[in-house]
Design brief:
This protein has 106 residues and is an all-alpha fold. It has a domain of 35 residues. 90% of the residues lie in helices and 0% in strands. It is built from four helices and no strands. Helix 2 packs across helix 3. The radius of gyration is 27 Å and the shape is elongated. InterPro entries: YqjK.
């Protein structure tokens, strides 16, 4: 009986070691996915925040949609492109400042 119990403990130890090795391997192999999943999580959080805002303030959302259809859509599209370009430029400049160490808190 004691011999059988020792064999079971030995087998359990080997299985636990194998599980630990498999977890470590899985962690190493899943590393490239981490940044992609982080980006997807951030995007999903932003969408959820937007949906919550629309649910809390449906009148403002309706007003924005009405303004879009009343105003000229081309004008809105043009200003949206300009705003996006300005935002991209700001991000690039900010990142360059961080790399150069010129930004506070870097």
């Amino acid at each position: 009986m004691n011999h059988r119990l020792n064999d079971l403990h030995l087998r359990r130890g080997r299985l636990l070691e194998r599980i630990a090795n498999q977890r470590a391997t899985l962690g190493r192999e899943a590393q490239p996915l981490r940044s992609s999943l982080y980006t997807a999580d951030r995007l999903l959080a932003i969408v959820c925040i937007g949906v919550d805002q629309v649910k809390r303030h449906p009148g403002l959302a309706a007003l924005a949609v009405a303004a879009f259809f009343i105003a000229r859509p081309r004008r809105i599209w043009r200003w949206s492109k300009r705003a996006f370009f300005a935002w991209q430029t700001w991000r690039t400049v900010r990142n360059k400042l961080v790399v150069l160490g010129l930004r506070a808190g870097a």
